[in-house]
Amino acid sequence: MKTAAYGISTVTLAPCGVNGAYPAFSGAGTFKFKAIVKDSLQFNDQAGSDNDIEVEDSDDIYATLQSSAPTKGFTMDTYDMGKAAYLHLMQYTENAEGWIEAPTQVNDLLEAVQIITKAFDEFPAKQFEWAKMKIKVTRAGTLGKSGFPNLHLEFREQMNADKDGKPISGHRWKDLSAAPANGDTGDDTGDGN
What's the pLDDT at 191? Predict the structure, then answer.
């Protein structure tokens, strides 16, 4: 069987689960992206960097200090500039007159993320999930006739912990070749398992 991932079927956000659990990616509080810009989802993992300490009386490295931790995440753009996108992603609110108003202070979103890829020939669909990601949202593009403005999102994996504060895995994926054709995993338990 071929193992590559191809195309995007859905990208869904959900409130982070309790004590590091994966949430159900359906129901209240979830947000499904529409109009994802073609080829805009790009992984941008970066390895941590080290600082080698050298001394005059040896040709060997005296010590190695970690100068930055590794980061894992991806970026994505959407043309969806609708009310639901502004309310959920940009943290705007709707007033009594129907205006969608900017918040006085914007905080980064902390949400669980699910990506389901498309099945293609011998390539099965895959389901990727992150229990906790920090999401930064900015606007990009122009209002001219040459293209649409879009929302640019930066997703960065965050440390995931159990009820005792012990770090646990915060990312998982599975092959959906045995899952129902509609992409439904049948997971309605709320714990993502």
Answer: 44
Strands 61-68 and 93-94: unpaired
Interatomic CA distance for residues 170 and 168, integer angstroms:
6
- The DSSP code for 140 is E
Mapping DSSP to helix (H, G, I), strand (E, B) and coil, where does residue 44 land? coil
pLDDT tens digit string along 125-181? 999 999 999 999 999 988 888 889 999 999 999 999 999 999 999 999 999 886 544
Of 158, 161, 150, the residue nearest 133 (C-alpha): 158
Amino acid at 91: Q
Rounded to whole angstroms, the Cα distance separating 178 from 125 reads 10
Return phi, psi of residue 51, to 5°. Answer: -120, 110
Q: Tell me whether residue 156 is exposed, middle or buried, using C-beta atoms within 10 angstroms of its C-beta: 0 to 12, 13 to 18, 19 or more.
A: middle
